[in-house]
Amino acid sequence: MPHPPARNQVVPHRVAITGAGIITSMGIGWAENAAGFRAGRMALRDITVFDSSKQRVHRGGEVVFDKPLPPNHLTARQLTRLDRASKLLVYAGHEALQQSGWKADELASGNIPICLGTSAGAMAVGETYYQSKITTPGRTKGLAEKVMLYQPHTQAQFLMDALGVQGPLTIITNACASGANAIGHAFRLIKTGRATRAIAGGYDALAEMVFAGFDSLQALSTTTPRPFDANRDGLALGEGAGVLMLERYEDAVARGADILAEVVGYGASTDLHHLTQPHPQGDAALLSMNRACEEAQVSPTEIQYINSHGTGTPLNDVAEGMAIQRWARAHVSQLMVSSTKANIGHLLGGAGAVETVICLLAMRDGFVPPTPTIETLDSICTFDLVRESREAKLDCVLTNSFGFGGANATLILKASRHRGIEASSSEIAADSFHPSSLRLPPFITGWGAVSPAGWSAGALIEAVQGKSPLPCKTEQREDAPARRIRPVPQLTDIPAWMKQPRFRRTTAVARHAVHAAVEALGVERLALVQSGALRVGVIFCSMNGCVQFSRRFFAEVRENPMFASPILFPETVYNAPSSHLAALLGSSEINYTLVGDSAQFIRGMELAAQWLEDGLVDGCLVVAAEELDWVSDEALMLFGKTTVAAEGAAAVFIERDLGGGNLRKVRLERVTQAWTYGNGMPREKAALLIKDELKSDEMKGALLCDGLGSGSRADRAEVQAWRDWEGPRVSVREVVGEGFSATSGWQTVVACEALQTGPCDTAIINAVGLSEQAVGAVLKV
Amino acid sequence: MSELKQQIKQAMVEELMLPQTADEISDEAPIFSPQGLALDSVDALQLVVAIEKRFGLKIANAEAARTAMQNVNSIAAAIEANRS
Fold first, then answer.
1. Is A434 a catalytic site residue?
2. How close, in Å, is residue B49 to chain A by CA atoms?
3. Three-state SS across A85-154?
4. Does A439 have pLDDT greater than 80?
5. How far is B73 from chain A (nearest CA, A)?
6. What percent of chain A stands above pLDDT 70?
7. Does B60 touch chain A if contact means CB atoms closer than 8 Å?
8. Pick the residue with more confidence: A645 or A111?
9. Chain Cα centroid distance, residue A656
10. Interface contact flag, B42 A563, Cβ < 8 Å
């Protein structure tokens, strides 16, 4: 039986949307998009951002930048670097901020969470980096910039800098559900009192590799995308961004803001059926919709309109249609449904956010956006599939986003008639973001690791205790500089799980992740989870993702996209490993992939604690994993010549204290505020702020698990912040190397083990990331 | 013909990341059945690409794929027919 929800003392807050920005191939901003969607205008055009001549499909929802970039705080240098994806974010972010009426001087407090979803980040920049490394292997000039720009958190930092916002950044990459997850995450932060406001959204720009990937899977329509048509033949890809400003309803009312709508429900689930195919009966989609309704406390009869995921692929639409039928039951014929992907294409990580804004347009202007391309309605449509423009007063709508890897998310919005007339105060409530005050500090009850030291936590701990750096391997590719790496040793005994068909095609990063997770859970608890007795969430963190397959796949695309491997592409998606983790556990619960540097594992533990506090899950696996490949190893060398790239994974199982006396357990006492670099927050300052937040009694007698040893700029910041530290310390990186997201996971595993064996009863984990953010954690026994 | 079948098996092992060796695949093993190689639809797409890339046989539609991709024997027959 699942455990009862954690007792949450906080009265839930209503969550208002007071700003929303949109950019799609339909146009830039509210007015153009509202007019276009109301009319059911098609906005697909010939692709010009890359050469699609060798692919089967040549059209998509490409954005036309026919308006100048809106006013922003970016420097001239940043403006010259602004990639297409970042531009999309800046347009949408500016519009949302303007609408919200948030004051500029309130934005730099450091307390406004930024939650973004993306699937591909700035893939196009990564493609140019790769191309450069292929054609001129020895070249280094200008490439560090490309490597930085390619990381999704750089686009987020551009957005933050453009708007003048500072705050903890969370990037969720749950494939096509990312944008909806990001909004749902921000919604929950405010609802539960962890934040007073937040910026949330999703974005993706067209990129050749992603386009070729969908083409290789024959998922792209060679005619016209016709969601819910009996003869549909696939989707069109598009690009764009949607950004929302969310805040507590009472604050919005008090300051007289125009409230666009309220977010009232969010549901997330994981479809375990297949990496790229939904369950044919729509089981997980139904779960996602039911969960959103439960949170919103609305029944299907109260929902008037569904902006469906509606990709137009044969499998998606029938699965979603089945789920809608099962969910709405007798109400189904009354339910208006459409897919706006017919008009602008599938925006992948941006879809959930953009479609949320489309719902806002529809609610505000009183229309239902039609799906204009249907010729023969599929028999699955027992609901009212809206094919022509229709006027309607919408009070309650639902939007679905279902992605690769089985990542499902549903949001429910309620219209607000509040137009600022009840204003009682012009002041906005002081921001109060409380990441450090975990209300119910949870326990880490299991840990596992895969590292250059071997396939167990024990091997890692033994190596770290030995204090000597592990031996390096030197490799060189053509004329490129020789690089020193620490790979994971060959696995001699193949574990049973690795022989399952699902894992045949997985990459090293997924195997590292699953192996560490299995160790963290242990045999008995894994069986318990697999039996369904425990509801277990998954948080997977990575910086480089499935870089080996990505590099191979893109090489094939460049050679001949018609022969690009459909078998590789699904595994290149950031959240493929978390999907495999969920499949191993048999868990349909909430599952996030967080992309970013080494701070992510700590942020992941913080999020796990919140899920436990909110009663969403009984336990949560937090896993970080990386794999080596020359394309990322050479990129790392651009940031530190002595840096040694390492691969592997770390995993912890986090749960509430269930009174078990003899469990190995370490309390996650707290996580400090996360400080995102940029906008007046250099790494050095962030490192100091983390140390300043720690209390003197926490530090007394504590073991410092620092992040030193990368040989990069992050080292300098940490050395400076902790130069007066005289207590015991352990430096995992010095022994193992730069493991990106896995590094702070390894630090956590080493800390847990050290606390179990004594003499310290407190450990401080310092995660000063290379390029994104810094955060710390305190563990206790 | 047997050399072609061996090449097909080798292609399958490499392109589909199969855990077995080419010699362990029988000519008659049904490709998509759990009793055979238990391949799925993504494998099928990969196999179509591999057959065209390595053997020059372009499988034009789903019906042709169903006919050709039953087992190693049927794939070999389709390639041979395309060559003649």
1. no
2. 6
3. HHHHHHHHHHHHHHHHCCCHHHHHHCCCCEEEEECCCCHHHHHHHHHHHHHCCCCCCCHHHHHHHHCHHH
4. no
5. 23
6. 95
7. no
8. A645
9. 24
10. no
Count: domains in chain B = 1
Q: What is the CATH number of the domain that holds B77?
A: 1.10.1200.10
A274/B17 Cβ within 8 A? no
- Considering only CB atoms, A565 lies closest to which of B38, B41, B46, namely B46
Q: Cα–Cα distances in Å, from A351 out to A57, A539, A750?
A: 20, 21, 40
Residues 6+ apart with CB under 8 A from A327: A286, A289, A290, A293, A300
Tell me the angle at which helices B72-83 and B41-55 cross, rounded to the nearest 10 degrees. 30
Residue with tokens 């995450």: A185
Contact in structure between A190 and A420 (CB atoms under 8 Å): no
B2 interfaces chain A, CB cutoff of 8 Å: no
Per-residue confidence (pLDDT) for residue A426, from 0 to 100: 43
- Answer whether residue A430 shows pLDDT above 70: no
The complex scores an ipTM of 0.90
CB of A496 less than 8 A from some CB of B: no
Domain, as residue range, for B24: 2-83
What are the structure tokens assigned to A420, written together?
Answer: 């600022």
Contacts of A274 in chain B (CB under 8 A): 40
CATH number corresponding to A16-415: 3.40.47.10
**Are residues B53 and A565, on separate chains, in Cβ contact within 8 Å?**
no
| Half-sphere exposure in the Cβ direction for A502 (13 Å, CA) | 22
**All residues at 6 or more sequence positions from A538 whose CB lies less than 8 Å from its CB, including other chains:** A270, A578, A581, A582, A585, A587, A589, A590, A591, A592, A620, A621, A623
Residue pair A468/A704 in contact (Cβ under 8 Å)? The answer is no
Mean pLDDT over residues A153-181, rounded?
A: 95
Separation between Cα atoms, residue A728 and residue A726, nearest integer Å? 7
User: Do you know the residue count of chain A?
Assistant: 781
CATH of domain A443-780: 3.40.47.10
Candidates A13, A94, A153, A176; catalytic one:
A176
User: What are the E-state strand segments in A457-529?
Assistant: 473-475, 483-486
For residue B55, which residues of chain A lie inside 8 Å, CB to CB? none
Beta pairing partners, A602: none
Determine, for residues B17 and A505 on separate chains, whether the beta-carbon distance falls below 8 Å. yes
Domain with CATH 3.40.47.10 in chain A: 16-415, 443-780
Question: Any CB–CB contact under 8 A between B18 and chain A?
Answer: yes
- Angle, helix A741-757 to helix A600-613, in steps of 10 degrees: 70
Distance from the B55 Cα atom to the nearest Cα atom in chain A, whole angstroms: 13
